[in-house]
Amino acid sequence: MIFKTSKLTPCIVATLSKPSKTAGINLLIGLMLLAISFSGCTQQVPPPPAAVGPTPTARQLEWHKLEQYAFIHFTTNTFTGKEWGFGDESPTVFNPTNLDPEQWAKTIQEAGLKGIILTCKHHDGFCLWPSEYTEHDIANSPYKNGKGNVVEEVYQACKKYGLKFGVYLSPWDRNHPDYGTPAYVEYYRNQLKELFHAYGPVFEMWFDGANGGDGYYGGANEKRKIEGATYYDWPTTLKMIREIEPEVIFFSDAGPDIRWCGNERGFVGETNWNTISTDTLYAGKPGITELLNRGSEDGTNWVPAEVDVSIRPGWFYHAHEDDKVRSAENLFKIYLESVGRGSNLLLNLPPDRRGLIHENDVASLRKWKAMLDEAFANNLAANAPVKASATRGEAAVYGAQNLTDSKPETYWTTDDNQQTAELLVELGQEQTISYVLLQEYIQLGQRVKAFSLEANINGTWKKIGEATTIGYKRIVPVDEVKTSQLRIRILDSKACPVLSNLEVY
Ligand code: FUL
């Protein structure tokens, strides 16, 4: 493979130079253009590659950048020991003795997580804010003598610690007498309006397809089945919310903005396409977990996966699980298999009966953060020279140097007909490497299907890692080696590869 450097640099300088505010610089640019035209520089920089398949919306792009944030499961279940409250729990059981959402926010912020999604209402129907539309809420609890509002407190704590705020409002409501009828959908929409008018911006709204059937339902104590595909009339509900909060990201199994990863164990597929075809999907549809976990290469919609997982076996706090908190090592593995495979991580941290994130959870989070900071402290490829076997139009604007310039808006790409290529990275001196991080310029679609990584060990290229898809981000743990040269081989791609970033640790 021959590694070429660009021969069009002067033309590109002229093409890329922005008009300057100062006359002196204007004159300089004028002189350069004149010199270039005299030197016979006639070659044109080719236009960027056309997008391939679906591409992310602006709000999805912003969501990708968050990478990881926290889930908070907190309700009457915390006090009854249940995971799914039946809906007949008295609001009087909700009585945290030392509730401190600022402790949650501080812990979460220090762990490097970027936001909180709060269970404003779980399946039991109990509302953490005083809702105008039900008596099954915090106003009828002893907390602050019925004057409390946990949603408000969490919202304010998020603001204070620079975190995004998100809403989980369970569609399945085992308390409400009207559940299963159109009147309940009206109730659900009223509550959404209540929340979205009171709090904003809301970065994400989370709703799931869980429906176990039986419940209290205002005393009926019976099983109620709904038609998952149609009952909630989601398009109308989502349109209503978007009018109040245009930038909100909607999560559900099937999107529309982001999808479930198909399990609650903390990983997305080794192959992870951001695309699926949503036309036949709906939240709670049986038999779709594998599809959600991997996405589909030829999917017609950009619906990236979110990995939701709890730091404990349950979603809610149970004292008997205090010694079952995930270790920092386990959280690190989850990070690599979620964020490291191009998904976002939604890590659940359930507050205890005091209303605090338990000491054991805090200790694990701190250790995990320290592990992440250590593993990804020193990017050995920052500003490293990179040569590509091919560059689009041989133009520097598309050159491999863009991979190590720390600018997410620049990228390396090849001519359209090229679906394989190689990149040679000079690390300068022998370095021990453990991880290679790659990012595609997903504004032009997800492309790469397979790649391998090789290290030059005493003049011989040794394969140290391989993976399939890249997407927003891919972190490949490689066989630890000492090397000064790394080779990235793009083995297959839907169309010409377009990569924006390369880091080595
Ligand atoms: C599921 C729910 O049934 C669980 O209780 C939990 O809230 C989890 C995040 O989503 O669908």
The CATH architecture classification of the largest domain is Alpha-Beta Barrel
User: What's the alpha carbon Rg, rounded to whole Å?
Assistant: 26 Å
Give the full name of the CATH homologous superfamily of the largest domain: Glycosidases
Q: How many E strands? A: 19
Structural class label: alpha/beta
**What does the average pLDDT come to?**
92
Count of domain modules: 3
- The ordered H/E elements are HHHEHHEHEHEEEHEEEHEEHEHEEEEEEE
**Which CATH C-level class of the largest domain is it?**
Alpha Beta
Number of helices: 11
- Beta fraction: 15-25%
Query: Biggest sheet, strands in spatial order?
Result: 7-4-3-2-1-12-11-8
CATH topology of the largest domain: TIM Barrel
Distinct small molecules bound, one entry per kind: beta-L-fucopyranose
Unreliable residue runs: 1-41
Largest sheet: number of strands, sense, barrel closure: 8 strands, parallel
Shape: globular
Instruction: Calculate the terminal CA-CA distance, rounded to whole Å.
Output: 26 Å
Roughly how much helix do the residues carry, as a percent range? 10-25%
